[in-house]
Amino acid sequence: MNDKASVDQHTRDKLETVDKRLAVANAEIAAAVEQSTGLLAADHPKFQLRNTHTELLDAYRELVQTIDMVERVLGEIDEHSETPK
């Protein structure tokens, strides 16, 4: 059986949304890490850390929200695919 045929359009749309949010979360994390790469060589590490703290928190929040969405979608897929009793 074709995997795409076994998943309804609503579920595929949700998976696509999850995929996009995960890409956004990954991009935010990459940007935050890139911004903080020169931290040890900086003249004022405390100032540098303060500058990256907000970006890292934003990336963390986006990642947590994305993980929550992934868990919800996977739960819905699991419920959707269960055999009626």
Automatic annotation (TrEMBL):
This is Uncharacterized protein. It comes from Halohasta litchfieldiae.
